Amino acid sequence: MPQKLAFRMKLTPGFEEEYERRHSEIWPELVTLLKDTGVIDYQIFLDRETSTLFAFQEIEGNSNSQDLGSTEIVKRWWAYMADIMETNPDNSPISVELPNVFNLH
């Protein structure tokens, strides 16, 4: 059974469309890396009022996108996105994992 992971991130206000544009042109090699790592579903939702992003992943295996920060492609993606998001000193997005508090099966 896949594990589920949810987290939130924050955009710089005014860059919502740019964020969507960049993700509509996501690099194929990044998609391949995510899939090869076991990420079988990755969705990002935007609250336009607060510029808050909500991300959800389903993962098969023991890795997820949060574990890929040492790869060159992820480092390049972080640098590419750093000008429009709240980031850590290494350009990784500041992300807060969200606990699951309800499931309807």
Automatic annotation (TrEMBL):
GO terms for biological process: rhamnose catabolic process. SUPFAM superfamilies: Dimeric alpha+beta barrel (SSF54909). GO terms for cellular component: cytoplasm. GO terms for molecular function: L-rhamnose mutarotase activity. It comes from the Bacteria. Its EC number is 5.1.3.32. Gene3D superfamilies: 3.30.70.100. Pfam families: rhaM. Keywords: Carbohydrate metabolism, Cytoplasm, Isomerase, Rhamnose metabolism. PANTHER family: L-RHAMNOSE MUTAROTASE. This is L-rhamnose mutarotase. It comes from Algoriphagus ratkowskyi.
